[in-house]
Amino acid sequence: MDSITIKDIAKMCGVGVTTVSRAMNNHPDINKQTKAKVMKVIKENNYVPNNSARNLKRSQSKTIAVLIKGITNPFFNKMLQVFEKETKSRKYSYILQKVDENQDEIDVAIELEKEKRLKGIVFLGGYFSHTKEKLEQLTVPFVLSTIVMASQAGENNYSSVSVDDFAESYKIVNYLCSLGHKKIAIISAPMNDESIGQLRFDGYKKALEDNHIKLDRNLVWCMKDCIEGYSMKNGYEVTKELLKSEEEFTAIYAISDSLAVGACKAILETGKKIPDDYSVAGFDGMDIAFYYNPSITTIRQPVEEIAKETIKILFDLIHKKTNSVHRIFPAELVVRESTKEL
Q: Span 77-98, mean pLDDT?
């Protein structure tokens, strides 16, 4: 049914044209069951909006989209600024699309691709476990940025830019061990997490193992599901509970700087001192880790370089100058005031 129209879709679903439009545009003011029904009919009939004037405009459009999971994570702020600047410098427009944790980013991308006639896509944050067949549903170039790819799709089917979260996490925990710390608590992602949180936890475990320190599960504290992930509030609340538990530890490693700032706040509120009573280390290299008092030892990711390389690769793919590319940037251990030798 190549000539199917939005009116046909509305008739099949028993709803109005406006409702179909809202479903396609992911409008919040629509019943979930109705939306699911509409999207099912659209998919079954391979419907693509075909208003000729709108299609002409879109076919001429020069637009890329950034689909982001974890949009509230302040680590992404600087990356988004670079994405926008680099995209506009190439005379392209830029769309930012939030993807909820329970949404399939590929499905979101496919709909966005149809609606906006995209030239390329950046997937930012989260965890990818899609098959080769799933990825092939995308008909425009795309790059994964700061994302863990855990599918069997094969590296020839996508491009990526990131740091080695396992190795960098190992680096900072190994540094704490070198200072003489043997009881190192961690604020980690939930144990069912399969993204960067898992890699950073694995790096923590391996560093302990290589320093002949047995993993103490009583020192493994996960972010709270009921609080925004990777936030200062989460780090604060988790550390308050850790301190109340009276578990013995000399250092705490938070897998993001925001969590580390929250941890510092909880420690200082008890009258304890950093680093005299507890050393604290973070991860990411955010500005707040430098300006906080005491300044926080961290792993600094080359955020601007990652963002610029992501856009460069995407446009090279768009202009068919390259095939799949995978870049892993080294990060830097930045030693500051929040850690000390025992």
A: 94
